[in-house]
Amino acid sequence: MHFSSKVTTTLILFFTFIRGAVCVPAPALLPRYSVNTTVPNPCMPQAVSPRNQEDIFFGFVNSFYITKDYQEAYTHVAGDLINHNPTSVDGIASSFSVVNSLFTSPSVSIQLIHQVFGAPFGWVHYRVDGLNPLPTAFVDVWRMDGSCLAEHWDVIEEQPANTTNPHPLF
User: Fold this and answer.
1) Which of 16, 31, 74, 106 is within CB 3.0–4.6 Å of 40 for a Cys-Cys bond?
2) Residues with Cβ within 8 Å of residue 67, at least 6 apart in sequence
3) pTM
């Protein structure tokens, strides 16, 4: 992955999710790579049809989960994003910072499992490899306000080493 030196900075924060808890490793143990940390201008909500919301949502999904272009993805996020993750605070800057530090590492990969939209809500179920020793399942639920993603919930589960359930996590 190539980043322009004009818009890069050294990553100094990397979260690891372990069984639902968030741990922050010592700075000396953090991986070193460059990411664009400039928070994009937030989305300004405008009235749109449910069909337009669906198009915006799936455009966001493509940028966020497939191409990992967080600069583009966050142009669809409201500045006053309501975030229900207990380890984060509200607002686009906080969300962008966490996502940018977690998922831009070349060692982290995202695989979409399911994605659904029914105005004004959309959700994405995906697998993340590279954050933990075993894969981690994420489900993000997003609520739209007109043309913008305005509210976020997530559920995170690391795949256990030993399972008793015969159904796969993914």
Assistant:
1) 74
2) none
3) 0.78
